[in-house]
Amino acid sequence: MTPLLFFAQRLSAAILAFAVAVHLATILYAVRGGLTAGEILGRTHDNLAFFAFYAVFVVAVAVHAPIGLRNVVREWTPWRGATLDAALAGFALCLLALGLRAVFAVYAA
Amino acid sequence: MAKDETNLHVDVWRGTDTGAFQAFDVPRRLNQTVLDVVTEIQRDQDPTLSYRFACRVGMCGSCAMVVNGRPRWTCRTRVSEVAGPDGALRLEPLRNFTVVKDLAVEMTRFFDKWEKAHGYFEPGARAGQDFAVVPPATAERRAADAAIECIGCGICYSACDVVAWDKDYLGPAALNRAWTLVNDVRDAGHDARLAAVSGDSGCQACHTHMSCTSFCPKALAPTYSIAGLKRAMFWHALKGVR
Prior knowledge:
The complex is a heterodimer of chains A (109) and B (242).
Chain A: H1 3-30, H2 37-44, H3 48-76, H4 81-108
Helix pairs in contact in A: 1-3, 3-4
Chain B: E1 7-15, E2 19-27, H1 34-45, E3 64-67, E4 70-73, H2 79-82, E5 88-92, E6 98-101, E7 104-106, H3 108-116, H4 139-145, H5 155-159, H6 161-165, H7 172-182, H8 190-196, H9 211-215, H10 222-241
Parallel strand pairs in B: 1-5
Antiparallel strand pairs in B: 1-2, 3-4, 3-5, 6-7
C-alpha cells in the first residue's frame, strides 16, 4: 500500500467511524415510533444537511472499501499490478456513482 | 495418552517442504531443554537428522524451531514448560522459510529483506569522524535502544501471518531494524530508509496481529516499531508533498 492509499484509508476510516455512528443513531431515533417511506422522504427532501452528510458518507465508503478490498485480494490471490488497481478504481467509481445517485434521489424526491 | 514419567514422545519433521513426521522416544532428564532432546536424537538415534545450533545459551538464535505449534529458541525452552503430561513434543522447522532439510531453514531471503529495508547504518558525512556520543540517559538514545537487541533469529518472521500471505512483505525483524535506525540520530539515511519500508510490502502491510511481539524471545515489540514507522512515514510523505 502506498503512503497515499494508507492515508486515504485511515482518513476515510475516521470519517466512517463518525458517520456510521450518526447513521445508526439516526435510524434508532427515527424508527422508534414506526416510520413510513413517505415520512422518510418528507424529512430528506430538500434537506441540505442530510445531503451533505450522506454525500460525505458515500465518498468515504468509495475511498475506504476498494483500498481494503485491494489488500484482501493481494493477500489471498496472486492478482497484482495495474489490472488490479484499475479494477478497484472501477469499483470505487461504481460505489461513488451508485451511492451519490441514491443520496440525490432521496434529496430530490 | 497416559502420563509417561520415563520417556518423551517426540515427533520430528523430516524432509524439506514435503516430508513427514518421524517419531522418537527420548528419555526424560532433569532440566532438559528442547535442544537437548534434538541433540540426543541426532547423536544416539538418527545421525541423519539435520538441525542448527551454535551458542546453546540464547545469544545466537540459530536453534529456533516451531515447538508444539509455537516458534521458540529451543536452547532456552525447557521440556517441562512445553511438553504435556503425556510427554508429547512436536518439532518443526520455522514457518515462512524454505526448509533446507528437517529442522534447518534457509535464511537468505530473510536477511535480504533487512538489506531491502535499509537495515544498515548510514554514516553519511560523519564517516571517518570520531565517535558520536549519544548519552544513554537521553530520549534519543532510549528511542534507539528500544528495539536494538534483535539478534535476527527469525522467530517473529516465522510467527507473522502477513509474511505467510505476502512473500515480499519485509517482515517484523527487518522493519524493527529499520525503526531502530530511524531513531538513531547519527544515521544519515533516514529518507531513503523510510522510502524503502513504505509500500505494498512495507510497514503499511502490517495487520497489527502482534504475533511477532508475542513470540519475540528478547521481549522486543516489533509491532510498536512498525507502528512507529507508519507514523514516521506519514510525516516523511507529507514533507515530500510540500
